[in-house]
Amino acid sequence: MTAPRQPRRPVPGPARPAARPARPRPGSQALRLGSPRPRLRMIGFGLTLVLLVFTVRLLQVQAVDADAYAARANVNRYIPVTLAAERGAITDRSGVALATTVDAYDITAAPDLLTPERTKAEGSARRAAELLAPVLHEKPGVLEEKLTANPKSKYVVLARRQAPQVWKEIAELKKAQADKAARQRGVNVLAGVNRESHSKRVYPNGELAAGLVGFVNADGQGAGGLEAQLDEVLAGKNGRRVYAQSGGRQVPTGDVKEQAAVPGSDVELTIDRDIQWAAQSAIARQVKESQADRGYVVVQDTRSGEILAMANAPGYNPNELDRADRSALGNGALMDAYEPGSVSKIMTMAAVLEEGVATPATHVEVPNRLPRADRNFADDVDHPTWYLTLNGVLAKSSNIGTILASEQLGKNRAEANEVLYGYLRKFGIGRPTGLGFPGETPGILAKPEEWKSSRPFTIPFGQGLSLNAVQAASVYSTIAAGGERVQPSLIRGTKGPDHHFEPAQAPPRSRVISEKTAKELSAMLESVVDDRDGTGTKAKIPGYRVAGKTGTSNRVDPRTGRYHGYTASFAGFAPADQPRLTVYCAIQNPTRGSYFGGQICGPVFKQVMEFALKSLQVPPSGSQPPRLPVSYDGQ
């Protein structure tokens, strides 16, 4: 058996010679690689320093200054927004709004959207102004100036506190411009016009009671009249809302903190809107016909002292303050001080009767001239010696007779002055009315020791002292109320956010003269109106007994401080047998027609009183006037 063949082993070839190292070229050095460790050490050290700086800074931010940085972050993250409180309404005694608040908008724009670079066209701001001008009732040039004053600005107010209807018109105009721009591949020049929600104070009755109610300024704060006087009550308390924001937008899931605004309280006045309208219409008409500087009418409830009307002419519309005459913005019935003239004689007569030195039937011989204090006093008309009763002195409004009666108040002139001064003060002359109205004048009544020259003889018939229209009305209301003075009032009460009505405190009362004296004075005042020789016959009202007094006094011109022109007035109450209302009218500086109080204020008194009596459904008088004697036989 043949043995298997063994495989052949490969025979190794001849060994290759080993490669020889390259020989360096003559004149060159051999390259040697440096060690990497130093460089690695430097890189490591640098990285360590950087990390150390970051670590220290991180510790500072998160541990040491954490609270400060969190506060700074919150300033930028959280946006505070003021929630404006709704201003309370001012209403008349029946709840009819004289001043209220409605929604309004500030119309804004972004001027930077109207630059030629953005619109690729010139005149975009002018075009926007022309489109908005008719809606905002503004001149295009004024709006264009606002849009171009700062072209890079993103915000400018074009008009403040506009009605919702104005924004509705602008929104429709924006849409129309957007559609037009889309069709023509142009630019909508109204794209940047927007709105901001606000509130606006409005006066639904325009000029009615404007001098009394007043107005607010551009910031919605009371700036005149009762709006200013009662600002804290009406304004309420603003709220606050804080929300998280990012990129100018509210974060939906972010924190929101809100403190609700507290609305202002509504204020209910004693004013009767209908009677106020009658008073304002009557005085405005007479001031215009007489071409007078101004006039006022005050209507007061004799029982409660409440003011039912306080009218001024000329007036103004608080909804359009920019068009109002600045001289008409006040409330002259409380802010003007003037010499009352003969309506003031009733206080002298009250002192004479109350002191018991005379009666309505006392005889007073009245010469044509009366020499006193180096001058001769006279009445409005020349006359022979009159033989009048004290009642007749008042009915004929005799200055001389009033001086003679006042001299009976003391053993000498100085003592008589002291007595008269005391009564004038008790009637409220020379002191505030108690209404607290902004700018109210207390009038001027010097102390008796300061009555020099002719003043002791002129003050008894209404020259040498001054008062305001409400003070004058209060004098006659005091007589009508049986000699008790009730401080005038304008506020019936307030109604807070909870709708609970809080009545005002009852006004203080004070006894000035006795009921007996008040009744005698009332009868004497009826003679002024009822007697055919009286000066107030134009104030008669069919069916009602009327007690009143005329007044015509020299007027001090406020610009020169000298007498110039006249103040005409009439004051009275009705029904004289059961007094309910007092009406006082005064007209300053009438220049056309008569300037006598009985002639131009008597008819105003009649119009207002007649309307008020019927409006309040006061029944007619059930008796005839007493008809006291006016004169006596001096032979």
Report on the structure:
- Helix content is 33%, strand content 21%.
- It has 635 residues and is an alpha+beta fold.
- The chain contains 19 helices and 24 strands.
- Helix 4 packs antiparallel against helix 6 (164-184) and helix 12 crosses helix 15.
- It is elongated.
- Strand 2 and strand 3 (97-109) form a beta hairpin.
- It has two domains: 82-114 and 124-269, Penicillin-binding protein 2a (Domain 2) (Alpha-Beta Complex); 273-317 and 332-615, DD-peptidase/beta-lactamase superfamily (Beta-lactamase, 3-Layer(aba) Sandwich).
- The strands form seven sheets. Strands 2, 3, 4, 5, 11, 19 and 20 form a seven-stranded mixed sheet that branches. Strands 13-12-24-23-22 form a five-stranded antiparallel sheet, sandwiched between helices.
Number of helices: 19
Structural Rg = 44 Å
Average pLDDT, rounded to a whole number, is: 88
* Percentage of residues in strands: 15-25%
What's the number of domains?
2
Question: What is the CATH class name of the largest domain?
Answer: Alpha Beta
Alpha-beta classification: alpha+beta
Number of beta-strand segments: 24
The largest β sheet comes out as: 7 strands, mixed
CATH superfamily of the largest domain: DD-peptidase/beta-lactamase superfamily
Oligomer: single chain
Q: Under CATH, the topology of the largest domain is which?
A: Beta-lactamase
> Residue ranges: pLDDT <50 for 5 or more in a row?
none
Q: What is the overall shape?
A: elongated
Q: Helix share of residues?
A: 25-40%
Termini separation comes to 205 Å
CATH architecture of the largest domain: 3-Layer(aba) Sandwich
